[in-house]
């Protein structure tokens, strides 16, 4: 912001006050010079009035400056100097008056040019501030739209995973099971054909592997246990499979009486644990992982920690500030934010800890729990 170095100091805004102050200041200087006239020369008055003209021209404007020059010229020529009224000035006085007029003209011109330049700068500053406010408002609007879009994308992603999981289980899984049975029957009929039997055996093994892969993918996309039995069953199933595949020792602390919570919150907790374990396997190099779930009347607390190499301080700072974290971290933060919770990430050389807190309201919990039980019953049927 421009300061007093460019714009003048605070000056009276009323034009009449500025004119009165200019006249008063000029008369004061004339009185002082009149009282000192016996001790100093006549031209000292012009010299003393020059700073007054400069001050008025520099800070108050053109009209006040011209009035000050005229008043100073008239007062110097016909009042402070002890002469008869309307007497003809001497050559020295005339020269001093001409020098004063020339100096005053230069000062007034410079002051007026500076005042106009300052006015332009003030106008430019106001326009710049207005543009900054407009750009700030546009940026806030864009951020709001981006948050809504992110929320909608996460919802669509979860719905699409549920749909794909159901399709894989209900259609392709059933057909693969039928193919497997047909191949088994055909293998029993043509056991006498050794070569054909070996080929069919290999085909059957491949089909079995495909069944396992499809079942694994279906369960990883959206495990049926999550909708049917809740986190207390889905999390142990997932962590056991993860530990078996990754060779990471996973310690899950989930109370037996954890119970059911709203479906959206169960999905968010499961995805949070899933993303944390994936990051531990990919980045931390930790041989162990500890997961702890705690539920009270008002909130659910999820804590995941490892004993890995930790997150570099620069990257951790960008995660916890308004920087650009990874897609996984962004997804976790957005899920927690949608549910009104908080996500804390702390890390040092001894490992990383992530703590998420999700609030539970009794009304929404009862409503969502009943809808979860209805969905589980329909899925079981």
CATH class of the domain at 225-318 and 326-381: Alpha Beta
What proportion of the residues form beta strands (DSSP E)?
5-15%
- CATH fourth-tier homologous superfamily of the domain at 225-318 and 326-381: Histidine kinase-like ATPase, C-terminal domain
Question: What is the CATH architecture annotation of the domain at 225-318 and 326-381?
Answer: 2-Layer Sandwich
List low-confidence stretches.
Answer: 1-10, 80-86
Distance between the termini: 70 Å
Helix and strand pattern: HHHHHHHEHEEHHEEH
Short description:
With 381 residues, the chain is an alpha+beta fold. Helix content is 69%, strand content 10%. Helix 2 runs antiparallel to helix 3, helix 3 packs antiparallel against helix 4 and helix 7 (231-246) runs parallel beside helix 8 (263-284).
What would the keywords be for this entry?
single chain; 381 residues; alpha+beta; Heat Shock Protein 90; 5-stranded mixed beta sheet; 11 helices; 5 strands; rod-shaped; disordered N terminus
Structure description:
The chain contains eleven helices and five strands; from the N terminus they run αααααααβαββααββα. It has 381 residues and is of the alpha+beta class. Mean pLDDT is 78; it is low at 1-10 and 80-86. The two termini are 70 Å apart. A five-stranded mixed sheet has the order 1-2-3-5-4. It has helices spanning 15-35, 44-59, 62-78, 91-189, 194-221, 224-228, 231-246, 263-284, 313-320, 327-338, 362-380; strands at residues 249-253, 288-295, 299-306, 342-348, 351-359. Among the domains are: 15-82 and 89-135; 225-318 and 326-381, Heat Shock Protein 90.
